[in-house]
Amino acid sequence: MTDPAFDTSVVVVGAGQAGLSVAYYLRRLGLDPGNDFVILDRGPSTGGAWQFRWEALRLGYAHRVNDLPGMAELDLSFDTADRHAPAKDVVADYYAQYEQHFGLQVVRPANVTRVEGLMDGFTVTFDDSSARHGGSAAATAGLTTQRVTTRVLVNATGTWGAPFIPWYPGLDSFRGRMVHTSEYRDASEFAGMRVAIVGGGTSAIGFLMELEKVAAETTWFSRRPIEFLEEQELNIESGSSSVRQQDEAARQGRALPSIVSTTGVPRSRRIQAAIDRGLLLAQPMFTRVTPNGVVLPDGREVEVDAIIWATGFRPELRHLAPLKLREKSGGITVGQGASWRNSRVFFAGYGPAASTIGANRAGRTIARQVIATLSSFG
């Protein structure tokens, strides 16, 4: 199905849950991996964003990881995976087996830096991104830039590469250590420290529990009261309000709201035990940062040695800037997985399809739309 005027018919950017789901269905619908469609992934290895998560994170500590479509063929399931091994290793291993089984031929590391429009297609520019995740300066200097032309683009980049830290007065004056979720590696790095943890989701809660017996003191700050659900696992699709808000924002081109702000936090056994021992008591958000700590709404200063920002991420869309898809309201208008400004650009794992089940469903829908789009070219 590849047009001789283009290198390939479809480029999928990202090989996490959403990208692999789209690839699976494109293959089922008759496209040849590596020929009719190409998958470009920034990570040095398999596993999507999971390969960069911290060592202590285990499956079941965070939101449920759903199986990829067709994973049953490999006799694999995250429901029966090892709960004692680091989640990043389990996911990376399962995804590696999945890619090999279905012959998806993912190109990595391939950091897509720019997508430009052509007549009835796109030029996708990417480079060897290994230096981005710990490579040397010499390796950075040796990056090779490559380009591939395509009829259709499927963006499945997720959010891990776009960490969000809200601005507070005095933020730049803080003399202690500040890290975002994306930079957190191990609790031992905060041994004996007074640590402020900011955020209202499962990552913040996980950090509190990991640091409980390691840090000298932990203080939890959240912009809103934490709603603990009765369910032990969060099924985002059951939170119809959250899905509706995500869908409305995507259709209107607005910045996407936080998932956890409308779904709450599942009350797993581990989290319930932490509630019972009084660990999970969130304080109102501080008003400013000082060189030595943070200032509470009542004016008192709390001295801390480190701040961990578990404040989430934003969709990673910088490489799409040349296509001018972003609206003045801050987002990209997306309906049924496709950009309303350019119908040949599809978004997998964006908005209401950002959860793992949603990504799988969107993969099937987007793959069908991609085939229909390619057929329209004759």
Automatic annotation (TrEMBL):
Molecular function terms from GO: flavin adenine dinucleotide binding; monooxygenase activity
InterPro entries: Auxin_biosynth/cation_transpt, FAD/NAD-bd_sf, FAD/NAD-binding_dom
Pfam families: Pyr_redox_2
Gene3D superfamilies xrefs: FAD/NAD(P)-binding domain (3.50.50.60)
Residues covered by the FAD/NAD(P)-binding domain: 9-226
Domain of life: Bacteria
SUPFAM superfamilies xref list: FAD/NAD(P)-binding domain
Keywords: Oxidoreductase
Protein name stated in the entry: Cation diffusion facilitator CzcD-associated flavoprotein CzcO
Upper lineage: Bacteria, Bacillati, Actinomycetota, Actinomycetes, Micrococcales
